C-alpha cells in the first residue's frame, strides 16, 4: 500500500493537532499554497514557486569566502575547516566543546534520564531534550555555532530538533529529507557533536 493510501488517516489525525500545526498557515498563505492546517503537503505543492538556492550552492566557498568579513573574523582553524564546504559538503569543528563541557553534558543527560524529564524513544534515542534543558539549548544555539551555520547557509538559522544517544544508533545509511525538509530546499543542516573520543572505526 502506497503512502497516498494513508493521506486520509494523516489528515484526520492532524485535525486534532491544530495548536501544533497552525503556525504553518501564514507560510502557506505567503507562498500561495491552498492548504488547511490538517492537509497533507508534498513537494508538488511547491512546484512553480520561486526557489532561490543558497549562495554556496551556487558559488564556490573556496573562491568567495576569502575576503568575506564574517569569514575573516573566524579563527584560522575554523576558516581551514569551512573553506571547502562547497566541494566537501561537511565541516569539522574540532574541540568545539571543552573536555569539561563534555563531562557536564554527559552528566546532565544522565540526570535528565534519572529524573524522568526525558526518556528513550525508538530504541535508544532521547528526542527533543533541548525543550527541557537550558544547557543543551544554549549549546545548540551558541553564537559560535550559529555564526558558522549562518555564514554557510547565508541566512539566519533556527534550532528545531535534538537527538541524544547514550550508545551509537547503529542505524544504516539513510536520508532524513522524507521526514523533514525546507523550502527553499537545501536549508536543513545537521550538527553532530561527539561527547566521547572518536576514532576512524566509530
Short overview:
It contains 11 helices and 3 strands, in the order αααααααααββααβ.
The overall pLDDT, averaged over residues, is 91
> Care to count the β-strands?
3
Oligomeric status: single chain
Low-confidence stretches: none
Strand order of the largest sheet: 1-2-3
Q: Quick one: biggest sheet?
A: 3 strands, antiparallel
**Order of helical and strand elements:** HHHHHHHHHEEHHE
**What is the radius of gyration?**
20 Å
Beta-strand percentage range: under 5%
Secondary structural class: mainly alpha
Gap between N and C termini: 37 Å
User: What is the molecular shape?
Assistant: globular
Key structural traits:
globular, 3 strands, 202 residues, mainly alpha
Characterization of this structure:
The chain has 202 residues and is mainly alpha-helical. Helices cover 38% and strands 4% of the residues. The chain has 11 helices and 3 strands. The chain has a 3-stranded antiparallel beta sheet with strand order 1-2-3, with no helix packed on it. The longest helix is centred in the middle third of the chain and has 16 residues, at 99-114. The mean pLDDT is 91.
Q: How does the SSE layout of this entry go?
A:
Layout lengths: L6 H9 L2 H4 L3 H6 L24 H4 L2 H4 L4 H4 L3 H7 L2 H4 L10 H16 L5 E2 L3 E3 L6 H7 L2 H11 L9 E3 L37
Antiparallel strand pairs: 1-2, 2-3
